[in-house]
Structure formats: C-alpha cells, structure tokens
Amino acid sequence: MKRTALFSTITGAIAGLQAGLTGVGGGVFLVPLMVGLLKLPQYQAHGTSLAAIVAVAVVGAITYAVLGHIPGSLGWAAIAAMAAGAIIGVIAGARLMMKVPARQLRWLFSVFIMGLGIYMIVT
Amino acid sequence: MSVAIGIGIGLVAGLLGGMLGIGGGAILIPGMVIFLGAEQHTAQGVSLLIITFLAVVGAMTHYRQHNVQLDVALWVAPAAVLFCVTGGIVADLLDASLLRDVWGAILIVVAVAMILSGRRSVSTQ
C-alpha cells in the first residue's frame, strides 16, 4: 500500500506539473507511468488516465481563469464549438480503442508522442 | 468560420483523447494558436477548460467498458491537482515563447522515454 501511495503520488505530481505548465491533460505522462509504475493493463491505463485528468483539468481551468487567461482572445462561440466537437470525438475514440489490439495501441501512442516531439522541435 | 474550425479541432482532439487516454491538449493548443490565432496562455487555459468536458465524457465511456480503475485515479489525483495549480502559476510568470520551449523540451523527454519503454513487453489482459 505504501508503494502504491508513493508511486501514485509521483505519477500525479509529474502529470499535474506538466498539465499546469503546458495546459494539457497530462495523459502523455499518466498513461506510460500507469503502465510502467502502477502496472495497469494497457486499456485500463488509457481509461484510468482520463478519469484522473478530470480532476486535473477542472482545477487547471480554474487556475488559468483566475489568472485571467480564459476566454482571453478567443470567443465563447469557438470555445463551445471545440467542446462540442471534443465530446463527440471522445465517445467515438473511447469506443474505437476497444477495437485496437493493446500492442498496436501502445505503438500508436508512441508514434503520436514522437510526432508531437518532432513537431515541437521543428517549429 | 471560427465555429467550424473549432468543431474540427475539438473532434480531432476528442478522437485521439478517447483512444489514447490523453486530454487532447497536444491537438487543442497548437490548433487554437495556428487556426484561431489564440495567444499561448489563452490556448493553454481554454485547452484545460475543453479537456474538463472531454475527460468527463471520455472517462464515463471508458468506465462503462470496464477500463477505469477508480481507486488508482483517486490515488493519483491529489498530487496531480496540487502540482497542476503550481504549474499554472509558474506558467503565468513565464513568457509565451519560453512556454513553447518548455513544452517542446517536455515532449522530447516523453518521446525518448516511450521509445525506451516500448521495447518491453505489453500487458494485454
């Protein structure tokens, strides 16, 4: 239990810091750490990651709002449109996940993160 | 026009987020900066707002598919929340171009970690 508490805290701290600093959910850290450190099966790591992100995103959004960054230069119409698109997309994505074998899901995840890293270096 | 672009950005972020178990901020933030002309701090804040909706619906969908270990999520949440607030405050003190550099550096670290761990076997149960 001590191990679980320690590893969970480490996982949360790394993902939370990244989420707050960069405005993402923290899943790029949560998924690998849940698989590697907390020994969750691949599918469950992806599902559990999103559940943890709920808490991170709520608090993160409030922090950014208090600091005056929401809605900033964006209109609420565009924000609502993104939210609507995201909700439809995430239901489809979560269902689609079950059709992808775990090994390929992990491969897909790695490729996505790699592409992202390269994109950030180039731009 | 920004509504149509917004729906498109949201759809892609949601699809990848749901499948990969991430928030989708990696799509949302560049999408807002490039296609909607958002300032970096704004994009990051709004990204977290969109992710709130995305993660609630995504987690519920995964929960119904028995892919959420709620106790693990609850163990991870306290430190995550605490450090998220810390990160948000630190980000507020940094300028936008430095934020992009921080973002890029973090992603490179993750990419390398993923390549190294990808050689290990995958649990599929």
Give the key terms.
heterodimer, A: 123 residues, mainly alpha, 5 helices, globular, B: 125 residues, 0% strand, disordered C terminus
- Gross morphology of chain B is globular
The whole-number mean of residue pLDDT values of chain A reads: 89
**Radius of gyration computed on alpha carbons of chain B:** 16 Å
What is the domain total for the residues of chain B? 1
Which structural class fits the helix and strand makeup of chain A?
mainly alpha
Q: Structural class per helix/strand content of chain B?
A: mainly alpha
Distance between the ends of chain B: 45 Å
Percent range for β-strand residues of chain B: under 5%
Distance between the termini of chain A: 44 Å
Rg on CA atoms of chain A, Å = 16 Å
Quaternary status: heterodimer
Largest sheet of chain A: none
Total count of helical runs of at least 4 residues of chain B: 5
Largest sheet of chain B: none
Number of domains of chain A: 1
Mean pLDDT metric of chain B: 87
Low-confidence parts of chain B = 121-125
Biggest interface reads: A-B, 106 and 99 residues
Number of helices of chain A: 5
Q: Give the beta-strand count of chain A.
A: 0
Please give a structural write-up.
- The complex is a heterodimer of chains A (123) and B (125).
- In chain A, helix 2 packs antiparallel against helix 3.
- Chain A has one domain (2-122).
- Chain A is mainly alpha-helical and 123 residues long.
- Chain A has 5 helices and no strands.
- The termini of chain A are far apart.
- Chain B has 125 residues and is mainly α.
- Chain B has one domain (2-117).
- Helix content of chain B is 81%, strand content 0%.
- Chain B has helices at 2-20, 25-35, 40-64, 70-93, 96-117.
- In chain B, helix 1 (2-20) packs antiparallel against helix 2 (25-35), helix 1 crosses helix 3 and helix 2 runs antiparallel to helix 3.
- Residues 121-125 of chain B have low confidence and may be disordered.
- Chains A and B meet through helix 1, helix 2, helix 3, helix 4 and helix 5 of A and helix 1, helix 2, helix 3, helix 4 and helix 5 of B.
